[in-house]
Amino acid sequence: MRRLAKEWVKPAALGAFLLACALTLAYAESGVQESSRVPKPNVTAEKGEKCVEDTEFMRRNHMKLLLQHRITAVHEGDNQKTDKFSIVNCVNCHASAKDNSVAGPGDFCQSCHAYAAVKITCFECHSSKPSGPAPAFHPVVSQGPVDKASPANMMRYQAYHGRLPNLDAGLNAKDMAGVIQ
Amino acid sequence: MQIVFRQLDGKSRGYYGLLGGLGLLTLIGLFSAYQMEHHGHIITGMTNQVVWGMPHVFAVFLIVAASGVLNVASIATVFGKQFYKPLAPLSALLAIALLAGGLMVLMLDLGRADRLIVAMTHYNFKSVFAWNVFLYTGFFTLSAIYIWTMMDRKAAVFNKPVGFAAFFWRLSLTTGTGSLFGFLVARQAYDTALLAPMFIIMSFCYGLAVYLLVLMAAFGWSKRPFGNAVITRLKNLLGVFIAAVLYFVAVYHLTNYYFTRQHEFERFILLDGGVYTLLFWIGQILLGGVVPLILLYAPATRQSRSAIASACLLVVLGGLAQMYVTLIGGQAFPLQMFPGMVESSSFFDGVIHPYAPSLPETLLGLGGVAMAGAMVVFAIKILRFLPESLDDSVVNPHHKAG
Amino acid sequence: MSDFDTYRRRFMGGVLGLAAAAALPAGVLFWQTAEGEVNDGTPASDTVRWGMLVDTTKCGAGCDACVRGCNQENGLSGDTSPTSPQWIRKVQVSNPRTGNSFSLPMMCQHCEEPPCVDVCPTGASFKRADGIVLVDRHLCIGCRYCMMACPYKARSFIHQPVTDQLAEVPRGQGCVESCTFCVQRIDKGKRTTACQDACNAEGHQAIYFGDLKDPDSEISRRLASYRSQEVLASLNLHTGVRYQGI
To answer: Residues C115, C14: one domain?
Structure first.
C-alpha cells in the first residue's frame, strides 16, 4: 500500500500543478480583477455614420472578410474606392484622430488585437493611414459651421483634401464635409 | 561474426565540448536569422541582382550532400553489397541531419519566414520548388522508416523495399535540386539539362566525403577499432565520384564554350571573373578535385588516414566553392537582354553584379551546418547507429590477418 | 519486455494520442479561416489583355520621366542602390560594332507565359485574367526564386521595413514586387499608366498603354501598322510589352 502511494506522488504533484495553472488562468479570464496592464480596446470610428456591416457581425467575421476579400481583390481586381470591404476603406474610417493611423498604440485595430493578443501583420504592407477623400458609400456628415482649426481637424482636412486648408479664407461646412468633430 | 551496434558513451569532456560548440554555433545562426527577419535582408549582402547568397550556398550544399550520403546505405540495400551493411544506419542518420540543416537555413532565409504555413498549404505544381517541398518531407519520412527497418529486427523484412524507395526518391530529390537551376531560362549559367545529373553525381561525391569524415571522426574520437578494409573501399569509391564530377564539369564548360553566345560567360567563369575564377580553378578543380585524387590514389598517401581525411575535407571545401561559383557566379553575370549589345542602366544591367557575403548570412549558413552536426553527435549517443567495431576481421569474414 | 518498457510505450502512445486530439481542432480552425464568401465588383476578365507599346525612337537618352512617374505613383523612393526596388528603369543600349545606340524603359514585360509564374512555389506570382502579372503579397514567402527566373530582371525584393507606403499600393518587407501596369488605376477605370502620363507630360509620347484584344484601341492599331519586337523574343514568352525601334 505504501509502495503504491509512493508511485503516485509524482503524477499527483504534476496534476496539482496543472490544476493550479488552469484555475489561475480561469480566474484571470473571469474579469473579477481588472488587469491594468492591457488597456481595454478602443473601438471608435472617426468618420461615417456606421460601418458597412453591423458591429456584432464585424466582431465575429471581419477576419473572414479580410481573408476572403484579399484573395478576390488581388486576383480579380478591386476598385478601392467602391469596394465595400477594401481595407483602404476600413482604414479611412477607423484611423484615429490623434495619430491618423489604425496601428499606433491605442488605435482601432491595434488596441483590440493587443487585448486579444493576436498579432496582425496587415500593416507591414498596407498603409495604416487614411488616403484621399471619403469613400463613396459613406454618408457625409456635416456638423454645421466649423471654425475650430484644431490640429486634429487640420490633419483630417489634409488627409481628405491632400493639402492644408487656407485658414485666411475661413473654414466652411462644405470644405469640412466628411470631417467629423 | 555478427556486427554489434552500440551507442557512444558520450561522457567525455571532448564529447560535451563538441556538442556544446555545435549548439552554440547553431544558436548564433538562429540569432542571425532573427536579425535578418527583424531588420530585413538589407543587413545581408544579397541584393536585387544577387538574390541568393551565402545561405543558399550552404543550404544547397547540405541538401545535395544529404541525398548523396544515403548512397552508402543504398549500396548495401539496393545493390546488395553486404560489406556496406554495418555502415548503413549512420548513412541514413546523416541524410536526415544534413537535410534538416540545409532546410533550416533555407527556410530561415525566406523574406517572410512567418509565412511557412502558406508554403505548406499553397502549391503551384509547375514549380520545382513546390515539388521539392514534397520531395524533402518525403525524404525525411523515408529515411526515418529506413532507419527503423535497419534497427528493429521485426521491421527488417521491409528493409529492401524501403531501401529501393529511398534510392529512387533521392534521385528524384537531387534531380529536383539540380533542376531548380536547370529549368531557369533566364541566366546563362543555368538553362541546361546537364545540371540535374551533374547535381546527382556531385551529391554522390560530397555525400561520401562527408560520410567518410564523420565515420573517421566518430570512430577515431571514440577509440573504436576501424580497419583499413572499410576505409580503402570508401576512399576508392570517393575517388571514382570525384573523377565523375570532374568529367561533368568538363562537359558542361566545353559545351558552353562551344556556343559562341556563351563565350562571354565562359570567359567570366574561367578567365576574368576575379573571385569566381579563383574559386573555380583553385577551389573547385584543384583543391576539390585534383589534389584529393592525388591524395587518395598516390602510393605515398593512399594508406595514410590523415591524408584521406584531408582529401575528404578538401572535397567538401571544393563543393562549397562549386556552389559559390554556380549560385553566385551564375547570378553575378549580367542578363543578356540584347545579345551582342552593351547595356547600362540604374539597375546594374550590363555589368557584373557585385556581391560580398556579409556576417549574418554566413553565420546563418554555418548555423545550419552546426545544427546538422549537433543532431548527428546527439543521435549517435542515444541510439545505436555506430557499429562497435569496424575492424577488418569483423567486417570481412574472409579477411586473413597479416 | 520489462515493465518500464511497457510503461514507456503506453506513455508515448498516450502523448501521441493527445497530440493527435489537439491537432484536430487546430486543423479545423485553419480550415475555417480559409473559408468565407465575399464578392464585390466585376472581376478582371480575359476579354481584355493589357499591353504596352514603347516607341524607342521617341525615347530620350537622358530622360527618365517614366521612372519618376512610376516612383511617384507607387510610392517608391527612387533610390538606385543595389537593394532599392526599381519597377521601371531606363536601359541604354549601344552596339559596340556599329556605334548605334538607343535607350528604352524596361519593366515587367507581363508575359503571356511568365517564367516567374512557373517557378513560384506558392502561386503568389500569378497572371491575372486580363494579362497583368502580379505578386500576391499575401502568399509571397520571399524566396526570390521568381527574381532568379525573370529574363528581364524585372522584379525587386524589399530588403527593409516599409512605413510610408501609399494606401493604394501596399508594399512591405520581405516580399517581391514589380511593375503592375498601375493596376490600382486600371481597376478604378483609368486607362493610362503613370509612366505613360509622365512621358506624355514631357512631350515625348513614347509609351502607349491599352487593350491588345481591342482592335480599335490605339495600341492595337499601332501594332498592326508598325513593326514591333519583344525583348528576347526567342524565348517565346509573348510579352505584353512590345518595342518599336530596337
So the answer is: no
